[in-house]
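Researcher: Hi, I'm a grad student and pretty new to this. My advisor asked me to get structures for two proteins we've been looking at. I'm not sure of the right format, so I'll just paste the first sequence and hope you can take it from there.
Model: That works fine. Here's the first sequence with its structure tokens right after it:
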Amino acid sequence: MSREARLERLLDFLHRSPTPWHAVEAMAERFDAAGFRRLDEGEPWQLAPGERVYTTRNDSSIVALQLPRERLHALRMIGAHTDSPGLRLKPNAAQASAGWLQLGIEVYGGALLAPWFDRDLGLAGRVHLRHADGRLEGMLLHVDRPVAIVPSLAIHLDREVNQGRPINPQTQMAPVFLQGGDKADLQRLLLGWLEAQHGIIGAEILDFELAFHDVQPPSLVGVEGELVASARLDNLLSCFIGLEALLESDGSQGALLVANDHEEVGSASTSGAQGPFLGDVLRRINAQLGEPGDEGFIRLIQASRLISCDNAHALHPNFIDKHDAAHGPALNGGPVIKVNANQRYATNSATSALFRDLCREAGVPVQTFVTRADMGCGSTIGPITATELGVPTLDVGVPQWAMHSIRETAGSHDVEHLTRALVAFVNRPRLV
């Protein structure tokens, strides 16, 4: 499979996934096309060895499984998350100022705020409706054109702005939306867009979860296309790579991809890594295809391995001093093993050794990241999932710049590097 074709699929996936709900929908479509069967959590499951199945929760998290052809003894698990930091609308978002309808926002996760100014912003998310017949329904909305902007204040009116002025998201970041508009216009426009996209007529909007997104499309950057630049690379890049690896696997082993929502805000939700979603799925699978009971479930978990994939901080050429001198991953230098002695990452020497051997087998380079001892460290779904399930876990990621910005940058060759390593993982007959 060519690198160029994979990158084309990546750019299309990123463009189609402005929110976690859209990302899960796009992933589900790929699984459907590959012959996976969708399971409803609220219905009985009848599973057969060798099947490929998936299920979703909250429409923003997904678990896909390749069931083994023989009895279930171990699973090769890949983990990622579907959410990214950004600006989300408040429930009563419409507000008027200086002749403009603006939309009040809430910052989701640890977003870099400055890059959101002066960008062409679209609107996306999900809307819940009551139809004329009383039926309730949730619909996805994707306004993929510039409908809003957060304008900067001219430097003439704030001469000290380049000296590090703090940004107040409550008072300074409400996007301008419609000149001369009032609060009723937001409802009118949302209904019009739903009619255009879904043919919905005569419905009433009951509630919504909507977010702004940059409408600049993803692209390959650099003289030789060495870079991928896009919104939400953290962590849709890992979702895409995990999806590609599962679809490319030979189907001989039990394998799983989980992509959780809400990682950027702590993972404590029904569909987050700290919630019961993955555990619920695994218990149902084990009850039918594995050794039933608590002991059987524990044996399954201890025989399995999880590779938690979440992007890593690449060495920035303008800020070299922000890295430990011996642990500065390079873009296009291969996947990064993420290590933290305080368990902000779940890597240990045993799981790290497994991944290094996988990279050797796949013929890809491998790097290591440890944060400076005088700086704090982020975290991932890895330690959370390991804590909830007890599964031996490794944290890895593609190196990137500008994490949590409105537009992030990664190496285009690293997409292939990590995919090949994860295919080797999913196909590996023995995990120990």
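Researcher: Oh nice, that was easy. Here's the second one.
Model: And its structure:
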Amino acid sequence: MCLLMLVVSMLAIIAILWIKLTTGRGQIQTCYNMTFQRDQLDTSFQKKLSQPSMGLNWSESRHDCQERGADLVIINSQEEQDMINMWRGNEDAWIGANDQNAEGDWKWVDGTAVTDGFWISGEPNNKGEEDCAVSGYQSIPNWNDISCSSKYNWICEKKINI
């Protein structure tokens, strides 16, 4: 009787472990795919930044992103801001915020309002027709409003369907 109970208990444990292993394998695969795609993005982004560039103005930068099936980056969280700062290194880079349509009414390229941001203290100040946003102005990790005709590097963002 004890032997029978021991065998049944072992079979139950094996069944539970098998279910957990099978379920976990799918999660591991999903995690691996996301990590692999992130690593591919990191590599392609770093290659782009490492190429010498004379920069483009904001509209040209946005057009370049759109030709790639993307748009200038929209930053909605501290985590995204930190990632952008890491990727851009010490380079200034256009982001997808501007107030070209109505002064002081900052919008992202998708038309949503820039409600919170990572502006440098005192910015945006619209000094000299500054209607476009750059991240990392003069190596400061936050945003500044700049003339849209200035030449900077840029950061594209593309949604990936997983």
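Researcher: Is there anything I should tell my advisor about the second?
Model: You could mention this: The first helix runs from residue 2 to 50.
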